[in-house]
Amino acid sequence: MEKLRLGIIGVGSVVREIYRHLYFHSDYSRLLDIVAVADPNEAFRAAFCDMYNIPPQRQFADYADMLAAVDLDAVQVNTPDHIHAAPTIAALEAGLDVVVPKPTAATIADAHAMIHAAQKAGRLLAIDFHKREDPRIQQCKARYQSGRYGQLQSTTWYMLDKLSVADPNEETPFFASPNFAEVNTPISFLTVHMCDALMQIVNLMPVEVRATGYSQKLPALTPRPVKGYDLCDTEIRFRGGALAHIITGWHLPNTAHATTVQSSRLICTDGMVDLDLDKPGYHELHPDGISEVNPLFLNFEHDGSVTGYGISSPGRMYQKFLAYRNGQLSSEEVAQMADPMRLGFFTTLVCQAAEDSLREGQTGADGVADGVTDGVTDGVTVGRPIDLRSLCVRQLGEDAAGQYLG
Ligand SMILES: NC(=O)c1ccc[n+]([C@@H]2O[C@H](COP(=O)([O-])OP(=O)(O)OC[C@H]3O[C@@H](n4cnc5c(N)ncnc54)[C@H](O)[C@@H]3O)[C@@H](O)[C@H]2O)c1
């Protein structure tokens, strides 16, 4: 087999921003035959299918109809986080391999069901955490894990998008779903990236999470306000005592020097690392403004092809799928791909705990902005600490929780 027959489930913003380049303009495009598309949003489905000549009989509103009608080898599930599990499980049960953009799912119950379905079906599941392929993260991981910096003690990561990403009042909104920033949070959209990158580097088990949320800018947007968080600070305590703060938001002024302003610092027993992730070295001064261009992530080349780790990260997953179908993937590689850390289970655990922490926290809402009456400024939610083992046991039961936490 030389090509995978791929069905695409969901063709919203992530496809527009990243995956259409993978499917049609990359070194990996020759491995992929995009044979069918399923998306209930007729306008998005039609726009994608018209642009890339997907015939009408292979366009579906319902992914179940696509799975029943079209011969496929793999699917990519580009639906909102809370709709990852059902199409992924249906595809795995139909004998297909599945790529999902990060995060694995919105809850550990969903993530566990997806991991379990892949094991049961003997198929591959891969989660595209593209930051893992950033050469700076990879180098930091190799050096940290060689023992060069000793033990992590404390670390801060931040990832802040321009307001235009979350603002549904933009002329061309970033997200296909107008309520994206209400049903999602900076935690599900952004913390997930940094949490995963950190855990890839230090390979530590998270034990407790507490979040603080700020909802002060988005509710004031006009004419359509957004009932959601501007900024979230997720505090993670790891086994052994290391502490992380992951600060994410989507309310930076649109004049910011990059769509995503991001960085991190790790302080360890034997050294310190600064990862200036939004300074990739291409600084542009133009009538549109001053900006940092990140060709490491997506590099739009002169000949129309697109490279960068945003493309190679999922591209390598499809190479593995093809090798698996051709009997050329070793059992060690198959086992590595099934590792829960690699499948984003612990990242999902931290993010769910952070969301739970906020939901169960105390929000200032008494009209007293200085916190005199209830002790919390309006629009600020102080979350409750969440013990991750208890959360796992409550959601999955003792046996399944033990499989992940030991
Ligand atoms: N937008 C990005 O830059 C980005 C980057 C990395 C990861 N992601 C992840 O990609 C996923 C999709 O996000 P997005 O930004 O494209 O959201 P989006 O709202 O822009 O698009 C989601 C698409 O899924 C479709 N959809 C909803 N239910 C469906 C169903 N049952 N079957 C088929 N299609 C369905 C919607 O109609 C829409 O077209 C999310 O998990 C997100 O976290 C997004």
Give the beta-strand count: 19
Unreliable parts: none
CATH level 4 superfamily of the largest domain = Dihydrodipicolinate Reductase, domain 2
Main beta sheet, described?
9 strands, mixed
Rg over CA atoms: 21 Å
CATH-defined fold name of the largest domain: Dihydrodipicolinate Reductase, domain 2
What is the CA–CA distance across the termini? 39 Å
- The CATH class of the largest domain turns out to be Alpha Beta
How many individual helices?
Answer: 14
Q: What would the principal axes of the Cα set say about the shape? A: globular
Structure explained in plain terms:
The chain is an alpha/beta fold and 406 residues long. It has 2 domains: 4-131 and 303-328, Rossmann fold, CATH 3.40.50.720; 135-296 and 347-405, Dihydrodipicolinate Reductase, domain 2 (2-Layer Sandwich), CATH 3.30.360.10. The chain contains 14 helices and 19 strands. Strands 7, 8, 9, 10, 11, 12, 17, 18 and 19 form a 9-stranded mixed sheet that branches. Helix 1 (13-24) crosses helix 10, helix 6 (135-145) crosses helix 9 (186-202) and helix 13 crosses helix 14 (398-405). The longest helix is centred in the middle third of the chain and has 17 residues, at 186-202. It is globular. Nicotinamide-adenine-dinucleotide is lined by residues 9-14, 17, 38-41, 44, 63, 78-81, 83, 101-102, 175-177, 180, 189.
